[in-house]
UniProtKB/TrEMBL annotation, chain A:
Superkingdom as given in the UniProt entry: Bacteria
Protein name: Uncharacterized protein
Organism: Pontibacter ramchanderi
From TrEMBL, chain B:
Protein name: ATPase family protein associated with various cellular activities (AAA)
Molecular function via GO: ATP binding; ATP hydrolysis activity
InterPro entries, per the entry: ATPase_AAA-3, CbbQ/NirQ/NorQ/GpvN, ChlI/MoxR_AAA_lid, P-loop_NTPase
Residue span, ATPase AAA-3 domain: 119-256
UniProt xrefs under SUPFAM superfamilies: P-loop containing nucleoside triphosphate hydrolases (SSF52540)
Alphabetical list of Pfam families matching this protein: AAA_3, AAA_lid_2
Residue intervals passing through the bilayer: none
Length: 320, 530
């Protein structure tokens, strides 16, 4: 079993053994016992490097940093997320090593933000969590404040497919310091070159089928029946008659946000084929090869339609 | 002649050879933060433990083999097929257990020392109650003089000052406020073994002062506080049924963790007594050093006992047993208040209320056999003593037999039998009215049989809901919450189709109501968050 070897940390643990045993027992009461080998691995591979980095900068903050990391580790291992997605969490937590000043001053807020980001990205873009971590890692060294860390987190989340953060990311990007903007642009050249903030779809002169999110709930999708879409204000909504969703899509990915405060009946009532007819009038019929479309919404650069024979949403996009 | 005497005395000081209970040993699983870092001396935590449970067993066998003549093995462990014999008209069965069995009169005081519990030893005069308590004090490392001086002998004139200490006379004259009066605290208050001899002879007012020390671990005189260390308590009583000079207050009785009965003297051992007289042998003067525990060792034992695990199937059997008794259908028309506590507080006659419970099979209903339920304190005591017994036997996990054996001593004075229950009128059950130890053990056996007949190990819906809930509510969607709520409602509906309501179902229903409420609140929070 791997063991912590950093002397100042060992000294702290020796002096505060009772506290940490008590914290473990509290966690054990809530979640059950944690595999000691896994806990030890987490401590050595993830927490110890963070503590080392913080101790080099703020020696007084070692106790607070370790205690926070220890508590959050117990929580992650207790609710099993830290075991099932160990690689993702460990990689994400290691971001704290890159910003020891923030990890020393706000360990709780930092870890909480990272965990929340992973939860959220995993819920909508599970295969792109590591991409978010990698993106953050490249640009993180320019971050001096917690606010910028959070802003950067949102922008990267949008860039890995969290389309609902598009507007927020645009606002945050405008407020970033030049050095951070440049760092982002070097990681994502098309951000400004292709005007990604203005254009939902990049380099698509004519409407083109992009992707078909959704799917049958039994196969891990969202819908129990072929869904219908409708527009409410600027918002695109979808429902299978039971659960309402807000739908966001752009070149980086799409998101179906559940539990929006709209009755499924209201969405069904507003759903129609007017969007499809307008699309046909503008671009012709050849781009849409389906004859069982049951609802469609036409946005300035996006067409979303649904079919009687499918549980998916079909997304078409073009550059403005 | 001198050589013979020395040889004989050497025999009395001989400590039983280790291992006293040979079996496979492996490391204890309890978590310690020390496991996460490399210690300088490289020592492992598990190593010390191996010596301490063995040392505890050696102490036990030294006491039973040489100190106290207690040739009784009433805590029986069977290991394979044990031979049985039946005697007399009453067909009393005697078992010759194949496993290592123990005398409760010695074992339980020793376990009390290990868990720092409160043990009441009941029995007639001259049965070795005080001698056993003194031995425990000596095992804890105190000198014979200290232990003897520290014994508090209950007597009708005992005052609070006799018990706790005196204010210094000079301070009584000079002091301008009570906090200036210094107190000469009695030495026994600071000891880790406390012995109260004949506690039922202490006057009621002094009993209340004793209660504060016993339950809250501090003594108070003239606004001065003395914080007592964690200690093992031994109280003795000649007659537990209130025949002492004073009636023991209920709160004091309630604080006692475990009750044991002193056995009679087996006259086949008079020869041993004769030898003791001839050799002038006093066990308390010859306690071997190898079995004396230091304060650090006692702390370590206590910590290791807490680390002994109780497997979920075992805990479930205990839960099932404990939830049989509190439910009392005729005490209210609201499920939460349908308890024996409600009936007791009303002051109404229990028998009258009991007769209103018609239609139920009172012989089958275990709840009909008691007038009260099992308190939280008793459940905690039961758990810690079961762990201590498993530890004593060199195990790292509690076995069902450990619970079965220790349970009657823990519940002896707290689970009051309802002697008018039809169960006691059944043929062969009359003796349970008299002997509480046997009755309580039988009660636990019946509960385990019922548990098995309901196949609770595999068919326990509450366990399913519990496991689901324990995963936490983080990231649980509203849709999922709605599904779980519906499942709970379906289960409650299923139970509502059962015709009779028994104690075990009472707690099940309330637990599902609890889950329902937690999920409902969480759902409301989700809606608000949106």
């Amino acid at each position: 079993m791997e063991k912590i070897s950093y002397t100042p940390l060992i000294q702290h643990l020796q002096e505060n053994g009772t506290l940490y045993n008590q914290l473990y027992r509290e966690s054990e009461l809530k979640y059950g016992s944690v595999d000691r080998a896994v806990l030890s691995r987490w401590m050595v591979q993830t927490v110890e490097p963070i503590v080392r980095a913080v101790d080099a900068l703020y020696p007084d903050h070692l106790p607070q940093t370790f205690r926070t990391c220890y508590t959050y580790t117990l929580e992650l291992l207790g609710n099993k997320s830290g075991i099932v997605h160990e690689e993702e969490y460990q990689a994400a937590w290691r971001l704290c090593e890159k910003v020891p000043s923030l990890a020393g001053l706000y360990p709780g807020r930092l870890l909480s933000a990272i965990n929340a980001a992973l939860d959220s990205i995993r819920a909508h873009q599970p295969e792109r969590v590591m991409q978010w971590v990698a993106g953050m890692e490249v640009t993180l060294r320019y971050v001096p404040s917690l606010e910028e860390f959070l802003a950067l987190g949102r922008i990267h989340a949008w860039l890995v497919g969290m389309a609902h953060l598009r507007e927020r990311a645009q606002l945050e990007f405008a407020k970033l310091r030049d050095v951070l903007r440049q760092a982002l642009q070097s990681s994502y050249p098309h951000l400004l070159v292709d005007n990604a903030f203005e254009q939902e779809w990049l380099d698509l002169p004519v409407p083109k089928f992009i992707y078909s999110p959704g799917g049958y709930v039994g196969y891990g999708g969202a819908f129990t029946a072929p869904p219908k879409v409708a527009q409410l204000g600027n918002q695109l909504l979808a429902t299978d008659g039971e659960q309402p969703y807000a739908f966001f899509a752009d070149a980086f990915g799409s998101v179906l946000l559940p539990e929006v405060p709209v009755q499924p009946k209201a969405i069904l009532k507003r759903s129609n084929l007017q969007g499809l007819e307008a699309f046909f009038a503008k671009f012709g019929k050849q781009a849409i090869p389906f004859d069982d479309v049951i609802s469609a919404v036409l946005l300035p650069t996006t067409l979303v339609l649904t079919r009687a024979s499918s549980h998916h949403l079909f997304v078409y996009g073009w550059t403005r | 002649m001198n050589t013979i005497v020395n040889k004989a005395l050497g025999f009395f000081q001989k400590v039983p050879s280790a291992p006293t209970n040979p079996q496979d040993v492996s490391e204890f699983a309890a978590f310690d933060i020390k496991d996460l870092y490399a210690s300088e001396d490289g020592s492992e935590n598990g190593q010390l433990q191996l010596g301490l449970d063995e040392k505890l067993r050696q102490a036990y066998f030294w006491i039973t083999n040489t100190a106290i003549i207690s040739p009784f093995y009433d805590i029986e462990y069977e290991d394979g097929e044990s031979k049985r014999f039946v005697f007399g008209d009453s067909k009393v069965e005697v078992t010759l257990p194949q496993g290592q069995s123990y005398s409760s009169f010695v074992l339980i005081p020793l376990l009390t020392l290990a868990v720092r519990g409160k043990c009441l030893i009941v029995g007639g005069p001259g049965r070795g109650k005080t001698a056993t308590s003194i031995l425990m004090g000596l095992l804890a490392g105190y000198s014979k003089t200290d232990v003897l001086r520290a014994i508090q002998h209950g007597q009708p004139q005992m005052t609070i000052s006799d018990l706790l200490g005196h204010p210094l006379p000079a301070d009584m004259v000079k002091a301008e406020k009570t906090s200036d009066i210094r107190i000469a605290w009695r030495k026994w208050l600071g000891m880790r073994v406390k012995i109260i001899d004949e506690y039922n002879r202490i006057p009621t007012r002094t009993q209340s002062a004793l209660l504060t020390v016993l339950s809250d671990n501090y003594a108070e005189i003239f606004d001065q506080i003395f914080e007592c260390p964690q200690a093992a308590w031994y109280l003795t009583a000649n007659d537990d049924a209130g025949g002492g000079t004073y009636q023991v207050i209920e709160a004091l009785k309630d604080r006692i963790d475990i009750v044991i009965r002193a056995f009679h003297f087996n006259t086949r051992f008079i020869e041993d007594l004769q030898k003791r007289i001839e050799l002038n042998y006093k066990p308390e003067s010859m306690i071997p050093e190898e079995i004396i525990f230091t304060e650090e060792e006692m702390d370590r034992i206590h910590e290791q006992i807490r680390g002994i695990t109780i497997a979920p199937p075992l805990r479930k059997r205990l839960e099932f047993f404990c939830r049989q008794f509190e439910f009392f259908e005729s005490s209210s028309d609201k499920l939460e208040y349908m308890t024996k506590d409600t009936a007791k507080l009303s002051g109404l006659d229990f028998r009258t209320l009991f007769r209103k419970e018609t239609g139920k099979d009172h012989v089958k209903d275990l709840g009909s056999q008691t007038k009260n339920g099992v308190s939280v304190r008793k459940i905690m005591t039961l758990l810690i003593y079961a762990k201590a017994l498993a530890y004593f036997r060199g195990n790292k996990q509690v076995e069902l037999e450990d619970i079965r054996q220790i349970l009657p001593f823990v519940l002896h004075d707290s689970l009051v039998p309802h002697l008018e229950s039809p169960y006691f009128d059944q043929a062969g059950n009359e003796s349970y009215r008299v002997d509480r130890i046997v009755w309580l053990r039988k009660l636990f056996d019946l509960s385990c049989e019922e548990y098995m007949s309901q196949d609770m190990d595999t068919e326990d819906p509450v366990e399913y809901f519990d496991a689901q809930f324990r995963q936490g509510l983080e990231n649980v969607s509203k849709k999922e919450v709605d599904r779980r709520l519906l499942e709970i409602e379906k289960q409650l509906h299923k139970w509502s189709q059962e015709k009779k309501l028994y104690g075990y179902r009472h707690d099940d229903i309330l637990k599902l109501k609890y889950f329902h409420q937690r999920y409902t609140n969480y759902r409301r929070w989700l809606q608000w968050k949106k």
